[in-house]
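ZP: hey, is the MU-OXO-diiron complex queued? I don't see it on the tracker
AM: it wasn't, my bad. submitting now with these inputs:
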Amino acid sequence: MKSHEIKKGIYWVGGIDWDVRNFHGYSTPQGTTYNAYLIVDEKVVLIDTVKKELFDKMLHRVSEFVDPSKIDMIISNHAEMDHSGGIAQMLEHAPNAKVYASKQGEKALMKHFDNSFPVEVVKTGDELSIGKRTLKFISTPLLHWPDSMATYCPEEKILFSNDAFGQHWASAERYDYELSWGVLREAAAKYYANIILPYCRQAEKAVTSVSELEFDMICPSHGLIWKDHVKDILAEYDKWAHQKSENKAVIIYDTMWGSTDKLAFMLQRGLEDEDVKVSLRNLRFNHISDLMTEILETRMIILGSPVLNNCLLPTMGAFLTYLKGLKPKGKIGFAMGSYGWNDKIVQEINDIMSELNWEVPYDLINVKYVPDGAELDHAYETGRKLGCLMNDSEKD
Ligand code: FEO
């Protein structure tokens, strides 16, 4: 894999994390990249760094284009350690470099690096002239940390967007046109669902503010560079930020002795008989971060669990914790499950759906031990009612 000159004098110098399979709870079967960018102008600028374990590789790539000691500026768009982890080591090689970050970024870097280097604070509207080019800063707070910002180079029409518009995708390819749009869109959707989703309002604001800029390339800090699909990914972000979902259903559940599985199947049959597309996802075989990707664009979410030791099954407990943090909105929810002697526990699923402000139109189904014929019929009929409800809402 050669380092890439993405435009004349601007280089991708990041690190490829081929082996990471779990990124703070998010499954990354494809690995990821930490993208850093080098601009060689009258000033030499490094935009973001990499996770500290990949620092030597970044240094090697930088050295292909410039003596690292010539770096004048390091822009830290975001202090999370996958992007700032290499700053302190970089400063050992570039002792004259100044570090730039947002006000919150300064605070975060001070804490992460024990005040070991000074940080110049920049904010929206600030500009740095680096020779033939200018760097402008756009604060994007809570996208997805308070310190997050983007850097824009108007002369080159490039937006260095940091985490926004990223994908966890390690590959030999660097540009969107080298992969199919469908594959890349799915990776970007997973990234949005697991990282950006709680901050949809901020995502909407960011899409609005960057839409006023003229750019033909988005260089995120993870994954491939957007070149051919800049408009497409902006449109997807606009849709995701408004939490527009499709009229389909997903049943997410676990089962001990098959009772919750039987209920899931009857709900599925009822929904199918109302021509609703429905998928069944057993928590034991599906990673919660993949389920969140499905939830992002799915209107109806049915959750089911049996009771174990007076609690929900741990798989459902973990999933609900993750779901509460990511706060998907605008869903129709339904809870179901089975129990032996504590019939209060499945209600916890309902309560979380209500906390999330989901529409919960029908009473949950909670079956003692094993569903009998009448209970299975009720689950089927409930599936049909849920299907009718969703079909009716489509006509409204
Ligand atoms: Fe990719 Fe928030 O760090």
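AM: back. Residues 78, 80, 82-83, 144-145, 163, 221-222 surround MU-OXO-diiron (CB under 6 Å).
ZP: great, adding it to the tracker
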